[in-house]
Design a protein that fits this description.
Layout lengths: L1 E4 L2 H10 L11 E6 L3 H13 L3 E5 L12 H10 L2 E5 L12 H19 L5 E3 L7 H9 L4 E7 L11 E3 L7 H8 L3
């Protein structure tokens, strides 16, 4: 599932604080949920051709399953330098329906599995089904994530919502309408 995030303010501030680089004023971040194989077969070639960076949120228990990314594909994505691997829980569980202990296992096990398997720091998280509450936000923070994305529609970002960053689903917004949303109109 393709998600486009306008994380301008948050990313500019975060990168400046970390002494990296400042993004352009109209920055857009491409994010993809679930770790489906078509990310590798359809999206990655386009990212590679245009040298565009993106984040893919992976459900670690689904790796190597039919229609999902394989370990070898994720390794190639990571090695490209174009794709950030983000967490999306161990089994794609709806976190708000779980006990605190169950939700923590889903969040922590996914992060640990992805970091151990691919030798990367997993710092971004996507809530499965976009569902979250204060307990899940707290657990994501405790697990060591720097930010998390929601499916709350919007493009304005701030420090206050860095654990439920807004996104825009292009399937519901295309063409001129999508451009207007991205421009804040």
């Amino acid at each position: 599932m393709l998600e486009v995030s306008a994380l301008q303010f948050f990313l500019q501030q975060n990168l400046a604080i970390n002494a990296l680089r400042i993004l352009p004023s109209k920055a857009v971040v491409l994010t993809f949920d679930d770790g489906y194989r078509d990310f590798y077969t359809d999206v990655f070639p386009i990212l590679s051709f245009y040298k565009i960076k993106a984040t893919v949120f992976i459900v670690s228990e689904f790796l190597n399953h039919s229609n999902n990314l394989t370990d070898a594909q994720v390794k190639e994505l990571v090695e490209s330098g174009l794709v950030e691997v983000g967490g999306h829980t161990y089994n794609h569980a709806s976190l708000t329906g779980l006990t605190s202990e169950q939700a923590a296992k889903e969040i922590y096990n996914d992060k640990r599995n992805l970091e151990d398997k691919f030798g990367v720091k997993v710092s971004s998280f996507a809530y499965p089904y976009g569902v979250f509450d204060q307990q899940t936000i707290d657990l994501v923070k405790q697990a060591g994530y720097d930010q998390a994305v929601s499916v709350v529609r919007g493009s304005e970002q701030s420090w206050e919502n860095k654990f439920y960053l807004y996104r825009i689903r292009p399937g519901g917004a295309t063409g001129e309408y999508l451009i207007k949303i991205l421009e804040g109109n």
